[in-house]
Design a protein that fits this description.
Elements (H helix, E strand, L loop, with lengths): L4 E5 L2 H13 L4 E5 L13 E5 L7 H17 L4 E5 L12 H12 L4 E4 L7 E4 L2 E4 L2 E2 L18 H8 L3 E5 L1 H5 L2 H13 L2 E6 L4 H10 L5 E4 L7 H7 L17 E6 L4 H10 L5 E3 L2 H5 L4 H11 L6 E4 L4 H11 L1 H21 L2 E7 L1 H11 L3 E9 L2 E6 L6 E5 L8 H7 L3
Parallel strand pairs: 1-3, 1-4, 2-3, 4-11, 5-10, 5-11, 9-10, 12-14, 12-15, 13-14, 15-18
Antiparallel strand pairs: 2-16, 6-7, 7-8, 16-17, 17-18
This protein binds adenosine-5'-diphosphate.
The site of adenosine-5'-diphosphate has 21 residues, from α12, α13 and α14.
């Protein structure tokens, strides 16, 4: 069967989030890392999501990467393209959302595209064109002080107008509430006013479904993962997609490993929940900086542990300890040392039979996937909101759960392994 939906995501965990949404709607989803080669194995995917690192890249690089991803998706005959960005619209006055949307819209031959970062499950809603994070306008949320993309406005029409060449208009809540036909009517009206983008209000998942029904013929859709919710049903209605399929569990037997680089409160709680019951070791960052063979020693230790339990290796520390390490070795260098060590551990321990791996941390997961040379992942069953089990496609037999720092309940690590055969 052909690939029905192709998505271009501006970062790695954002791609996983979208992958999880579409798998939850019963589609077979594969996530690929970077623009795929011709020989990248995508199995029997109905959705291919290309994870880029374009959110804060220079504009030209972001546009070029996104267009290359579009060429690959078009070659695979996709029916509809999603440009996925963050549900907090992470960008600056210059981009990259506007310029990438402009380039994709033209190259995809789309007359009009929606702009909808809403993700109600995570408190991101849009009302009268204004983006909210739970009960706060975006400009009053913690995103206000983000180091790379400080969000100091909340009006999406204004933000799109500042970033893009094409004009934007609003499809307001009252129109959305009136259903798919009224949304389509409003889109025609905006087009007659010269708009090529429609910022659309959405507060609930039901509204996202109505929006999905209104845009079955849109070649390009832009938004957060929520905007994908209503799209699979259009393909089902046309007979192009079978009944809702439950996402599988990776069928991988072997030893289980948790590698942690995230220092978030949620992740440290997850470590506390297992560190007394599973073999656990903390990475000595000073030793890494001094050039000691910390990785070799940890590998030898892990391989000696009883295979009945997962093994946990973490770098995580509380904010004071992290600050002290960063002061001693530099912020960037300490991050790099830890990421490199975790990547090496993943490779050496996979070679030693650990082929069921949880990686905790966004940057950490990027480093581990790249060290393992994993190019594509089949999205399997969800462990916690936003975090699915995945299985590497290609020659490696490995199950991977890539958790962004703040996600998951305190029992996440136990819950995840309990799902596996
Ligand atoms: P999150 O998803 O929680 O933001 P990330 O993996 O993206 O997690 O980021 C955590 C960063 O902190 C990584 O670059 C990691 O290498 C670094 N790190 C982890 N432990 C330590 C430590 N003890 N000292 C300094 N940096 C650390």
């Amino acid at each position: 069967m052909a690939v029905l939906i192709g998505a271009i995501a501006d970062d790695f965990t954002g791609a996983s989030d979208l992958a999880n949404t579409l798998a939850g709607e019963g589609m077979r989803v594969v996530q690929v890392i970077g623009v795929p080669d011709d020989d990248t194995d995508i199995g029997d995917a109905e959705v291919v999501i290309i994870a880029l690192k374009s959110r804060t890249a220079p504009i030209k690089e972001a546009v070029d990467q996104s267009l290359a991803a579009l060429v690959w998706l078009k070659m695979h005959g996709v029916e509809q393209i999603i440009f996925k960005y963050c549900s907090t619209f992470d960008s600056t006055d210059k981009g990259n959302i506007g310029p990438v949307a402009d380039a994709l819209r033209v190259a995809a031959g789309a007359d009009f595209s929606l702009v909808c970062p809403a993700f109600p499950e995570n408190g991101r809603t849009i009302y009268q064109g204004h983006l909210f994070v739970f009960d706060q306008l975006l400009e009053n949320s913690t995103m206000r002080d983000h180091p790379l993309t400080p969000m100091q406005q909340s009006n999406l029409v204004q933000m799109m107008d500042a970033q893009s060449q094409g004009k934007s208009g609003l499809i307001n809540y009252q129109t959305v509430q009136a259903g798919a036909a009224s949304i389509q009517q409003r889109i025609k009206e905006l087009q007659s006013q010269g708009c090529v983008y429609g910022v659309i209000d959405a507060i609930t998942v039901e509204e996202l479904r109505a929006i999905g029904a209104a845009i079955s013929d849109h070649k390009l859709v832009t938004g957060g993962s929520g905007i994908a919710t209503g799209l699979p049903q259009n393909f089902r209605a046309e007979g192009l997609l079978g009944a809702h399929q439950a996402a599988p569990v990776p069928d991988i037997r072997g030893r289980s490993l948790v590698l942690v680089g995230s220092c978030s409160t949620a992740t440290r709680g997850q470590i506390d929940a297992v560190s007394d019951i599973w073999p656990s070791r903390k990475i000595d960052v000073d030793g890494l900086a001094a050039g000691d063979d910390v990785v070799g020693e940890l590998c030898a230790w892990a391989l000696q542990q009883n295979a009945a339990h997962p093994v946990l290796i973490y770098a995580s520390a509380d904010p004071q300890e992290v600050a002290a390490i960063q002061q001693k070795h530099g912020t960037e260098r300490s991050g790099e040392l830890v990421e490199q060590a975790l990547g090496n551990l993943a490779v050496q321990l996979r070679n030693g039979g650990f082929n069921r791996l949880i990686s905790a941390g966004g940057e950490t997961s990027g480093a581990i996937v790249s060290a393992l040379n994993v190019k594509a992942l089949r999205i399997c069953q969800e462990i916690a909101p936003g975090v699915p089990w995945t299985q590497a496609l290609g020659s490696q037999e490995i199950a991977l759960a890539l958790k962004s720092g703040n996600f998951g309940a305190p029992t996440f690590f136990q819950d995840a392994f309990e799902m596996l055969p």
